[in-house]
Amino acid sequence: MSALTLYDKVWRDHLVKDYEDGTSLLYIDRHLVQEVSSPQAFAGLIAQNRALRRPDAHVAVADHAVPTRNRARPLPDGLAARQVSRLQENATRFGIPYIPMRDRRHGIVHVIGPELGFTLPGATLVCGDSHTCTHGAFGALAFGIGASECECIFATQTLRQRKQKRMRVTLDGRLPAGVTVKDVILALIGTIGTGGGVGHAIEYAGEAVRALSMEERMTLCNMSIEAGSRVGMVAPDETTFAYLEGRPLAPRGAEWDAARAAWRALATDPDAVFDREVRLDVGALAPRISWGTTPEENLPITAAVPDPDAEPDPERRARMRRSLAYMGLEPGRRLDEIPIDRVFIGSCTNGRIEDLRLAARVVAGRSVAPTVQAIVVPGSAGVRLQAEAEGLDRIFRAAGFEWRESGCSMCVAMNDDRLAPGERCASTSNRNFEGRQGKGGRTHLMSPAMAAAAAIAGRLADVRSLA
Amino acid sequence: MQPFRSVTSVAAPLPEADLDTDIIFPARFLLLLDREGLGRHLFHERRHKADAPPFVLDRPPFDRARILVTGRNFGGGSSREQAVWALADFGIRVVLAESFGEIFHANCFRNGVLPIVLPAEDQARAMAAAGTGAPMTVDLESETIALPDGAILRFAIDPYRRRALLAGLDEIGAILADDAAAIDAFEARQRRTAPWLHLARDRLAFFDDLNRAPDGAEPESRAEAG
């Protein structure tokens, strides 16, 4: 038998059948259900009078539309309240566990899946949310789907798919001080472009990946979709097992031993061949900042706003002009001279405990600039409680940050956490699209450490110069 | 699903790259629970911009366009199927682009919308032809686009997706009808080889205290649900 990659092995283990036209029926083990992509899927199921095949394969939680403060009160927004209650009604009707927003297990789907041990190596996991690639950090084959596909999972526990090509991103070297895995993924997207991974399942490999914690691997895999790939995976290893052991839904006892043995065998065979190989030396990187309205438009903080006139490709030039006009930036301006109005630390990209520790280290003993409104939104109640136990909330509050409750918050601006038109935000989220953080809002993507530095400086700032 | 065979229509030219699903359908409208009637929020910010000329889809003859011609990486970003529902509700049945976001691309096929990937040269010809305001014909059976000047562009669609669109296939119904035994067999096998992927009663007990307490507004109506 020929050599296989991690992706090949998980695919093989979930193949129900191959069709003659080259598509395959893939079995899906786990489905995270949220309020935005599920109401129409449940409605379809009900309209067709179809049963939900496997209630034990789903967990439901409202993360996008929930407020991050005043949770003791009823939801104020009529539409949001209706959406959240619809999810609970559907979950109850079909026998799926529903985690309420005031529960200790609440959080962003991509934060709580791993926390609960719902996410496992070698599993197939989907969610009606593009950042489902986050779970690939565990060696799961995890990808975002649309609402119609959610309906298909409810009814059949399968999806008809065509296998992706395989792409390996090898990260060499060691991260320099002040540089994080967020800077690595931004640099990768800047290199291969937002379409660079289209049609491919990415595997992240190399010494720099092996050295990453699970939280860091999740940040890395999370933004695979920003490089165009639905799938970003890391082979499970001792770091993975140490994270998962003892999690509430993870296997235990003899089953844990059997699972771990199976997971060890998932690593890509040494002589396996990828359709595309990319290498990046992380030792040469500096902290990065996005300047435009697509994640690929990012540069080291030491750079200046680029000049569209220097871009030879006309489509790219037009794209840059549109970005600069929306962002209100002039070519040639130093990035570290751009003042900001807001800071957002959170999201499924950077809302985990290590992210908050990193930001708190920068913030400790300093104050948020008086011109800046800054919020910290833990990715889950679990993260919030852990941070509070460590006293991180007191560090943030003392510096002038607001300390919120878990949810997607200002990454997607579906609740009342959003930018006003023209406001500029230093954000640890994943997308700097037009209007992403609120109509007319301007987003600069960066690491938690860099967002913390920006909050203190009142402008985009190099965290290394604060140290 | 509505079958797709052939569309003859003026084509709206939208020569921009990277029109992501946040631009196609802004997130604040995702609070709506239905898939119908979303066309009024399509490209909402672009269509309600102060001090700007009317958006292409609001200008005759393109306000009746059923074909959209646009730049590379159309529909990237969020997986929101609302982007496709909004296009379809507006009347768009075909999108021509150099490349697409993958999840958007997959979502199109489940809603009777045909996303066509064209090489740069053909995309430029289609864009120029769209600008004339004359109708073109997109035919899925023959995988051709007939431009107003009579020129023919060829495209290729995944054979399964093509058949499904032509037939207006109910994919879920087809899987349930044809593959239920294969799924049963797979599940039985997996329960033996990887039992940890099936949450047993003792593990699910972790959730036993849920689905009881009300959460936020209207607790009474929720208590009655189900």
Structure description:
The complex is a heterodimer of chains A (467) and B (226). Chain A has helices at residues 6-12, 39-47, 78-94, 109-116, 147-156, 181-192, 207-210, 214-222, 238-244, 253-264, 314-327, 347-350, 353-363, 381-389, 392-399, 448-457, 463-466, and strands at residues 15-18, 24-27, 30-33, 58-61, 98-99, 124-127, 141-144, 158-161, 165-172, 200-205, 231-233, 276-281, 288-290, 298-300, 342-346, 373-377, 402-403, 424-427, 442-445. With 467 residues, chain A is of the alpha/beta class. Chain A has 3 domains: 6-163 and 247-257, 2-Layer Sandwich (Aconitase, domain 3); 165-236 and 269-284, 3-Layer(aba) Sandwich (Aconitase, Domain 2); 291-466, Aconitase, domain 3 (2-Layer Sandwich), CATH 3.30.499.10. The longest helix of chain A has 17 residues, at 78-94. The radius of gyration of chain A is 21 Å and the shape is globular. The model of chain A has no long low-confidence stretch (mean pLDDT 97). Chain B is built from 10 helices and 8 strands. Chain B has helices at 21-24, 44-47, 82-90, 102-109, 120-131, 159-167, 171-178, 180-193, 201-204, 219-224; strands spanning 6-9, 11-14, 67-70, 94-97, 114-117, 136-139, 144-146, 152-154. In chain B, the strands form 2 sheets. Chain B has a 4-stranded antiparallel beta sheet with strand order 1-6-7-8, covered by helices on one side. The chains are: A alpha/beta (467), B alpha/beta (226). At the A-B interface, helix 2, helix 3, strand 5, helix 5 and helix 10 of A face helix 4, helix 6, helix 7 and helix 8 of B. Chain B: It catalyses: (2R,3S)-3-isopropylmalate = (2S)-2-isopropylmalate. Chain B: Heterodimer of LeuC and LeuD.
